Amino acid sequence: MNAAPLCVLLTDFPLADPYVGAMKGAVLRDAPDARFVDLAHGLPPGDVAWASIQLAAQRDVFPDDAVFLAVVDPGVGTDRRILAAACGRQRFVGPDNGLLVPALREGASIVAVDAAAVRVRHGAETFHGRDVMAPVAARLLRGAPLDSVGVPIADPVAPALPSVRIDDGAVDGVVLHVDGYGNCVTNIEVAALDDPAAWRATVRGTDLGPIRRCYGDVDPGEPLALVGSIGRVEVSVRDGDAARRLGVARGEPVRVVRS
Amino acid sequence: MNAAPLCVLLTDFPLADPYVGAMKGAVLRDAPDARFVDLAHGLPPGDVAWASIQLAAQRDVFPDDAVFLAVVDPGVGTDRRILAAACGRQRFVGPDNGLLVPALREGASIVAVDAAAVRVRHGAETFHGRDVMAPVAARLLRGAPLDSVGVPIADPVAPALPSVRIDDGAVDGVVLHVDGYGNCVTNIEVAALDDPAAWRATVRGTDLGPIRRCYGDVDPGEPLALVGSIGRVEVSVRDGDAARRLGVARGEPVRVVRS
Amino acid sequence: MNAAPLCVLLTDFPLADPYVGAMKGAVLRDAPDARFVDLAHGLPPGDVAWASIQLAAQRDVFPDDAVFLAVVDPGVGTDRRILAAACGRQRFVGPDNGLLVPALREGASIVAVDAAAVRVRHGAETFHGRDVMAPVAARLLRGAPLDSVGVPIADPVAPALPSVRIDDGAVDGVVLHVDGYGNCVTNIEVAALDDPAAWRATVRGTDLGPIRRCYGDVDPGEPLALVGSIGRVEVSVRDGDAARRLGVARGEPVRVVRS
Fold first, then answer.
1. Which residue among B41, B181, B213 places its CB closest to the CB of C45?
2. Whose C-alpha in B49, B121, B166, C54 is 20 to 30 A from the C-alpha of A86?
3. Which residues in A lie closer than 8 A to residue B46 (C-beta atoms)?
4. Nearest residue, CB atoms, C16 vs list B42, B61, B230
5. Same structural domain for residues A104 and A193?
6. C-alpha to C-alpha distance for C237 and A211, rounded to whole angstroms
7. Entry pTM
8. What percent of chain B shows pLDDT beyond 70?
């Protein structure tokens, strides 16, 4: 089976605007048989950190030959660089603001794109996703080697991710994101907790009890902390909206302590 | 023509989160040439009844060989079963909470999936759409027979759909859903009314007049009841938002009487 | 390379409803190997003018053989015509309310569709996108000539686009649309300004300074006017929401004067 090349998209472009569609059109002009999967759009505007975590968390779900086109790019039009990278057989295109870095592992190759050489349109400097990054992704989708779209670099901009503080028997983190259900995803990685069930979480003075496996472990309407689908502690309410119910927003401190 | 296998998705996953994208990635890992069509996402969280009606209403619009992956799954991680079904050549995957049942007609085959056998990830019990149902859908997309993904059952959980009350010359129903335009879709099926134009509808004390064929049958800004696109009575306002204008929400009683 | 036929969709269908999905299903029934790209959905309900501008602005980004299916159709079910058009090798299907016209250039061919001949469903007159336009698009995607779906016309309904007023040294326009970031897109075309940097913009008494190239030309949090991605003057706030910050909505006057 020789499936068409796969382009996976992640942006903060608003859901009801034509920006995602226009970017896909630009990819198709240069790679007419490309297929698309939308990993996510409408992400919080300019929230590079959260988008970078999603990209890193979900990339392994996708096929080995996927090309990821990731655009959360508040610096569009300035002299920030545009990067392309290869990590295993997967490839990545995005702005040089930390967005791609968490998804890249040991041994990844990174190049700085020569935007002037690939851009296909002139006049607007506000949509490099369509006018520069899409053509780069299209080249990679057509099988061009990474070094044909830019020159190797070793100093990508590091992502600004809020780090957890680990004290004796306590882990202090924050809410990174409130999802559309009202679930509050923290920066506390479950892998850092030997046995999650042996820890309990607290937010805004509410003891959420031991870290659970699923919503059904508590009664409907009850708050809980649980192991989320990207391997991080999440604060939820069964069949409810935790952010609203607990008054929690992005940045809210969350503490996990050994029971 | 030998089109790639088609996977049709219906979920309550929020529109601006990566859950739909991750689920597609998981399908592609096992069925690399699958194609996707999003029937709907961002449906009201946990509203199994409405999602089940949509699936039943729209399935016939899709090709005969479509595989539907439907996830509105508030019981994720509990011991609720996961089902796969075949109805004609179309196949369906989803939780055993009533979601699939209205779409399945006489003669459908249903199996309970052996989740332990197909799951591809471990650690999180909050995303069976990605980690169990997507791999099952992928197998079906690749042509696996239904009985290769589970064991036959005859007792799927029944959907909890609000039923209409039919009295002499009156049908009492409720609003099932307010769509993004503000149209209020009821559970009153037009097929139950001999000649729709011979009936008139009332909601919250407002007489909406005879049941119309289209918005243009009344003046701009006027409320009306009409035959909706899934064959149910809908309450609308021409060029306007009926839910806001009439103060109607999900669950609001609607009565239809013979003129 | 013989890529599958491409259908590009543009609608005001709400994002969380199954209308877009159902329309795609209807296309696939008749053109099983069609591919889809969503140019935009969830556009402001019934705002034909804005949708028509987007279609005209983005069509050239897409491949030459794309079939555009555009549905912003408040007159659905009335006797308004349904059009199909060819402009170069690209083809277009949509209601006859001005939606397609700005995208059609000199030499385009237009036909009025014989809806009765192509419709595939009966009973509902509220969803011609699915029941009439999708089957027409499917025929075109399968290579049918334009004149096989309708009869030539020369009098499509003209779009009602707000025009700019050009006085000596001043251009008066309005905000056509507020996008999901809060950027305010005006009807003032940059092509009408010799050197954009030699002009400055004013909105609601705020002098936005000279027209910029990108957000980074001002400090974070500062308002600005700039050359937007569809070649029109846009009012923005760097890393912010201009509509909220400046109290601007659709229809707000914007003036551009020579510095």
1. B181
2. B121
3. 239
4. B42
5. no
6. 42
7. 0.94
8. 97
Reading the block at residue C33, the tokens are 């190997």
Question: CB of B124 within 8 A of CB of B165?
Answer: no
Residues C34 and C143 in one domain: yes
Contact A25 C216 (CB under 8 A): no
* Residue B82: φ, ψ to 5°: -115, 135
Structural domain contains residue A47: yes
The residue to which tokens 């491949």 are assigned = C63
- Domain boundary residue among A152, A183, A203? A152
Give the domain CATH number at C178: 2.40.30.90
More confident residue, A62 or C192: A62
B158 lies in some domain: no
Report residue B165: phi and psi, to 5°: -110, 120
| Domain count for chain A | 2
Contacts of C50 in chain A (CB under 8 A): none
Asked if the structure places residue A160 within a domain, the reply is no
Q: Which chain A residues are closer than 8 Å to B14 by Cβ?
A: 179-181
User: Between A and B, how many CB-CB pairs are < 8 A?
Assistant: 100
Give the domain range for residue A234. Answer: 165-258
The answer to whether A185 touches A43, Cβ cutoff 8 Å, is no
Distance from CA of A19 to the nearest CA of C (A): 8
| CATH code of the domain covering residue A10 | 3.40.50.10790
Are residues C148 and C208 part of one domain? no
Q: Which helix (H) or strand (E) holds A50?
A: helix A48-58
Same domain (yes/no): A96, A129: yes
Q: Do B17 and A37 touch (CB under 8 A)?
A: no
Does B37 sit within 8 Å of C25, measured CB to CB?
A: yes
ipTM here: 0.93
Residues of chain A with pLDDT under 70: 1-2, 119-124
- Single-letter amino acid, residue B62: F
Q: Do B126 and A229 touch (CB under 8 A)?
A: yes
Give the closest residue to B74 by CA, choosing from A54, A234, A237. Answer: A237
Considering the domain architecture, whether residues C141 and C179 belong to the same structural domain is answered as no
Taking an 8 Å cut-off on Cβ atoms, the answer to whether C227 and A124 are in contact is yes
